[in-house]
Design a protein that fits this description.
The protein has about 290 residues and is of the alpha+beta class. Helix content is about 40%, strand content about 25%. The chain has a five-stranded mixed beta sheet, covered by helices on one side. It has a four-stranded mixed beta sheet with strand order 8-11-7-12. Strands 10-9-13 form a three-stranded antiparallel beta sheet, with no helix packed on it. A hairpin with a 2-residue loop joins strand 9 (about 195-200) and strand 10. Helix 1 (about 5-15) packs across helix 2 (about 20-25) and helix 1 (about 5-15) packs across helix 4.
Length: about 290
């Protein structure tokens, strides 16, 4: 299979047209079109529907895309070993993370990382929805939750402790809970899934049902509600550090339990032939998290 044709296909999908792919690769639009047509003829399927200005991926093309990316990335990784200055990173790095973590942690750390590697391109997908990283061609997903997909490869980057917190105004009007059972009498700001928070109590996990006037699928909405005095939230240290320092929120410690700590994971679709740009990004993020 022609790796040059695979590169045309991947670049065309990433940039929305064959003309854009040709410019990035440094060939003519006609050559790009012929290369893609030859690849489709070899595979016996149509990978994209294309016009002179745009293209859309077929179902077959969408299914084939992650495999094409893997082959192109494997070539790039092999060539990087042989080139002078192999430490320089290039190519496209596709990352996904939650909106809050992306804005609070990833976006700031990517600025010096990309300045250090001017040939690197980054696609950053920030979403609180579940992402199929294989189907969408994601290189690495940053997840802060128990991992459910055993087919993926995960690397623990850092612990993710959480705290109960509330605005001073809320605690002035509602005496702070002292024990786990006291949360039943408070307005708790929880996600839209069944409102049960997990705690560690005497070395064991314990679920506590909570309720309140607001539920939200976004931790950014929960943080805003907590700052606004609507109740108690259960949020990660990295997310509320500035709010605690500035007095917008205060911690609400319990005498008999602590919120269950989670882990920040870097999740890959496969452990084989991980591109240098992915390994370098994960290492840089791990270093940043250790300083927080």
């Amino acid at each position: 299979m022609d790796l040059a044709a695979l590169t045309v296909f991947v670049e065309a999908v990433d940039h929305g047209s064959l003309a854009a792919a040709a410019r990035r690769i440094g060939i003519s639009a006609m050559a790009a079109s012929r290369s893609l047509a030859a690849l489709e003829a070899e595979l016996g399927v149509r990978l994209v529907h294309r016009t002179t200005r745009a293209l859309s991926v077929t179902a077959e093309g969408e299914a084939f895309l992650p495999h094409a990316r893997a082959m192109v990335d494997a070539r790039d990784s092999a060539l990087a070993v042989l080139r002078p200055g192999a430490d320089a990173l290039s190519g496209r790095l596709r990352i996904t993370a939650s909106a809050a973590f992306g804005r609070s942690v990833l976006a700031p750390m990517l600025v010096p990382f990309m300045h250090a590697h001017p040939e690197l391109h980054v696609d950053l997908l920030l979403t609180d929805k579940a992402v199929d990283i294989v189907r969408q061609g994601i290189d690495v997903a940053i997840r802060i939750a128990p991992l459910r997909d055993n087919h993926l490869v995960a690397r623990a980057l850092a612990a993710n402790p959480r705290r109960l917190c509330a605005a001073p105004a809320y605690l002035a009007a509602h005496p702070a809970p002292r024990r786990l059972a006291d949360l039943a009498g408070h307005c708790c700001l929880a996600g839209t899934n069944p409102a049960q928070w997990r705690f560690v109590r005497q070395g064991r996990l314990r679920q506590q049902t909570v309720s309140g006037r607001l539920t939200a699928s976004s931790i950014e909405a929960l943080r805003a509600a907590a700052i606004g005095g609507l109740g108690i939230a259960n949020l990660s240290d990295w997310y509320i550090a500035d709010d605690l320092a500035q007095g917008r929120l205060v911690t609400v410690p319990l005498d008999d339990a602590e919120p269950e700590p989670l882990t920040i994971w870097a999740v890959h679709p496969t452990a084989r032939l991980v591109p240098p740009r992915v390994r370098a990004f994960v290492s840089a993020l791990e270093a940043v998290l250790k300083t927080r």
